[in-house]
């Protein structure tokens, strides 16, 4: 190889090495940011920021329990049963069994002012309330989903925003 060919070959190798380094460093710098913006990471952050450690333990203990209409135990639970048990165990409050009756015992407030432990009500089937969850923080709530069981979910998703009816704390 002559000197000119050797320099071109070295320059090409140098360019390839630099391109690989730039690619690897850019992937490395974007990776943590991409992870922290996922729904799961945001839900985990909402859980980590709960003021009530008893609420945190209750939710983690029930997470993943399957949905069962009328259910009230770890073999299956529905949304209003979950809200009832959570309010009884964590806050010492007795509330009605059905979600539409639970909606009658809250002090309604603006959704932007919801606080940890407030009940949130939805209507997926029309005008009447047919679903309840418990607000956590940063727009997240916990509920018994008919398809995913007990789960922490993002209330800011359009699927929930369009059917949110009201929310607030239980009246004392």
TrEMBL record:
Keywords: Hydrolase, Lipoprotein, Protease, Signal, Thiol protease. It comes from the Bacteria. GO terms for biological process: proteolysis. One of its GO terms (molecular function) is cysteine-type peptidase activity. Residues 49-172 form the NlpC/P60 domain. InterPro entries: Murein_DD/LD_carboxypeptidase (IPR052062), NLP_P60_dom (IPR000064), Papain-like_cys_pep_sf (IPR038765). Belongs to the peptidase C40 family. This is Lipoprotein Spr/probable lipoprotein NlpC. It comes from Pedobacter hartonius.
């Amino acid at each position: 190889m002559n000197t000119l060919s050797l320099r071109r070959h070295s320059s090409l190798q140098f360019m390839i090495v630099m391109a690989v380094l730039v690619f690897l460093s850019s992937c490395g710098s974007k990776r943590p940011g991409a992870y922290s913006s996922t729904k799961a990471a945001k839900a985990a952050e909402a859980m980590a920021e709960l003021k009530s450690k008893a609420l945190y333990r209750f939710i983690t203990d029930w997470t993943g329990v399957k949905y069962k209409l009328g259910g009230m135990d770890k073999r299956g639970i529905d949304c209003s049963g979950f809200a009832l048990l959570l309010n009884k165990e964590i806050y010492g409050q007795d509330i009605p069994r059905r979600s539409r009756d639970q909606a009658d015992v809250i002090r309604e407030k603006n959704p932007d002012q919801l606080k940890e432990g407030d009940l949130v009500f939805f209507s997926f089937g029309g005008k009447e309330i047919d679903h309840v969850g418990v607000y956590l923080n940063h727009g997240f709530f916990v509920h018994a989903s008919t398809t995913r069981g007990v789960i922490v979910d993002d209330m800011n998703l359009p699927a929930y925003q369009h059917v949110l009816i009201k929310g607030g704390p239980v009246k004392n």
